Amino acid sequence: MAKHDKDATFVGDSRISAKRIPNIAPSYSDFPGKSEPFWPNFLLKEWMVAAVCLVGFLILTVSHPSPLTDKANPNDTSFVPLPDWYFLFLYQLLKYPWASGDWVVLGTIIIPAVAFGAMVLAPWLDKGKERRAKKRPVATGLMLVSLVGIFYLTWAADHEHSLHHSSNQAGGGAVASGDPNFKPDEIWTKQTSCMGCHGNNMEGMVGPNLQKIGSKYSAEEIEGIIKNGKPPGMPAGLIKDEAEIKKLAEYMAGLK
C-alpha cells in the first residue's frame, strides 16, 4: 500500500478551557545579589524602614518637646529670623544672585522641584542592575554632589548667621552695660514700645543705652529721632502724641 503524506491540522476546542499561567514575578532567591521586583518586594521593605523611622521620630517628639524661646516682639527690628536646620540649605541657596532677585523662581521652585523630583523618580531613571557604587558612577556621583551641597549650604547658613548676628540672644539681643542703680522717670516707664528695645531702665538691649543720651543729642534732635526714626534699627512713629513726644525728649535731653 502506498504511503501518502498528509498535513495534520489541530483545531482548538472552545469547550476546553485553556490553561493559563498566572503572571507571577520569578523568584530571585536562586540568584543572590542580582535584583528583585520593585513592586511589592523592594517597596515593602522601604515602607517597613519608613514606619520604624516614623515611630522613632514620634517617640523623640513626645519625650523631648520643642524648646520655646521668648515671645515675638514687633518692636525688635534687629531680629533676623532663621529657619530650622533642615531648611537651612534652601535658605542659604536663596542668598546667591543666580537664585534670588530676578531669578527667585529658579531658586524657590525650579531647583527644588528638579532635585526632589529626581530623587522620587530615581528607581526609574537609573535601571542599572549593578549594586556596587563604583560600577554606577553617574548615580553615585550625583548622590555625593547632592550630599556635599546640602552639608555645605547648611554649614554656610549657620556660620554666616552666627558671624553677623553673634550678639543676638534668644530674647532679641545682647544687653548693653548700664548703671544698675539707674531709675528712669515715669514718662519712660509708660513707653512700652521703647522699653522693648532699650530696656526697662534704659540700659539698652537691641537698641543702645540711653541713660546718658542727653550728652549726645539735644531735645530737638531726640524729638526728631522719635518722630522720624533713625537707621538702621530705630523705627518712626512709635509715639503719636506730640505733647508726650516733647515731654519725653526734654527728659532724655537732661540725662547727661
From TrEMBL:
Annotated Cytochrome c domain residues: 173-256
Carries keyword Acyltransferase? Answer: no
A GO CC annotation recorded here is: membrane
| Domain of life per record | Bacteria
Q: Where is the Cytochrome b/b6 C-terminal region profile domain?
A: 28-155
**Transmembrane feature ranges:** 47-66, 103-125, 137-157
| Predominant localisation class | membrane
Q: Which UniProt keywords apply?
A: Electron transport, Heme, Iron, Membrane, Metal-binding, Transmembrane, Transmembrane helix, Transport
Recorded GO molecular functions are: electron transfer activity; heme binding; metal ion binding; oxidoreductase activity
InterPro entries according to UniProt: Cyt_b/b6_C (IPR005798), Cyt_b/b6_C_sf (IPR036150), Cyt_c-like_dom (IPR009056), Cyt_c-like_dom_sf (IPR036909), Cytb/b6-like_sf (IPR027387), Cytochrome_c550/c551-like (IPR051811)
Question: PANTHER family, per this entry?
Answer: CYTOCHROME C-551 (PTHR37823:SF3), CYTOCHROME C-553-LIKE (PTHR37823)
This chain belongs to which protein, by name? Menaquinol-cytochrome c reductase cytochrome b/c subunit
According to its UniProt entry, this protein's organism is Brevibacillus fulvus
Top-level taxonomy: Bacteria, Bacillati, Bacillota, Bacilli, Bacillales
